[in-house]
Amino acid sequence: MPEIHIPDDAPPVLRSSAVWPELTARAALHHYDTLPANEDELIERIRPAELVLNIRSSQKFTARVFEACTRLRLVSVWGTGTDHIDLAAAARHGVTIATTPGVSATSIAEHTLALLFAIARRLPEVDARTRRGEWARGSSVELCGKTCGVIGLGAIGRRFAALARGIGMRVVAWTLHPREIEIVSLDELYRTSDVISVHLRLSPETTAMIGAAQFALMKPTAILINTARGAIIDEQALIDALQSGRIAGAGLDVFATEPLPPGHPLTTLPNTVLTPHCAGITPEAVEASLRLAVSNLFR
Predict the structure, then answer these.
(1) Is the pLDDT of residue 275 over 90?
(2) Which residues form the catalytic set?
(3) Residue 17's closest CA among 296, 287, 281, 282?
(4) Is pLDDT larger for residue 59 or for residue 67?
(5) What is the reported pLDDT for 62?
(6) Residue 181 has pLDDT above 90, yes or no
(7) pTM above 0.85, yes or no
(8) What end-to-end distance do the CA atoms of the chain give, in Å?
């Protein structure tokens, strides 16, 4: 039987999944339900491994990790992001990196739409005021007929674009790989969009690509949604834009530092809706992506 090392199933999702019995029947497992404390502990856990199933992205697979783990042949990642993996180092050491693209697209796109509605309709504020006995009405925004700018047209971006069109929005997009949706320049997207939704991978090219200059182009009524990676947006510039009214609001599932530190400025702003990087964590998406991650190992 092949041996599979799982160094970071914390909080645990794999052991309770439907794919776990199949995995235990087909492989000898070295399973850890705690996160490695540091790079040295990650190396210790996977040094003998040929096959690794990577659940969490909190511990980076650096060049040093690949240098130390000389038997490693494949890392199967639960998820689509590889910003925690030194891909060039993996290639130099002959290690294949596999991901699970597309399986969480519907879940994340639906969460993106939920954040958009929450901001446009000011649901947290209205809920809180109603619970206090107030009767505040008339402060929400109708989205039908507005322009939705989608940055990135991978599986998630395309699915969200379809949902936005489904509620009557005009969809424009910017993407590295042009598709059938109306493509505009980034500057035009920032200037004309009532809603801007980010669906890009984090890379050196996309890190902090939305900063003060980009917020200066946006409408003061614009809503920004980010369910991709927090570091794509200059977080301080976002905070400044929200505090000053440069944009109307933001719905965020991802942040530069996760979990958010206590007292973080974003948690104090009334024009934000925040969720804990959970857009892709529905039972359906978790099971499908774990099954694909396991399937990648055996393939």
Answers:
(1) yes
(2) 229, 258, 277
(3) 287
(4) 67
(5) 98
(6) no
(7) yes
(8) 14
Residue 141 burial (CB < 10 Å; 0-12/13-18/19+)?
Answer: middle
Cβ proximity of 123 and 272 under 8 Å: no
Assign domain 3-101+283-298 one CATH number from 3.60.15.10, 3.30.110.170, 3.40.50.720, 3.40.50.300: 3.40.50.720
Residue 161 burial (CB count, 10 A): 24
Sheet with 249-252, side-by-side order of all strands: 182-183, 170-174, 147-151, 195-198, 223-226, 249-252, 272-274
Q: Which CATH number fits domain 105-274: 3.40.50.720, 2.30.42.10, 1.20.120.80, 3.40.640.10?
A: 3.40.50.720
Rounded Cα gap, residues 284 and 158, in angstroms: 19
Our measurement of the distance from residue 26's CA atom to the centroid of its chain's CA atoms, rounded to an integer in Å, reads 31
Residue 133 has pLDDT above 80, yes or no: yes
- CA neighbours closer than 13 Å in the CB half-sphere of residue 83: 16
| Per-residue tokens: 1 | 């039987």
Q: Where are the domains of the chain?
A: 3-101+283-298, 105-274
Instruction: Report d(CA 51, CA 84) in Å as an integer.
Output: 17
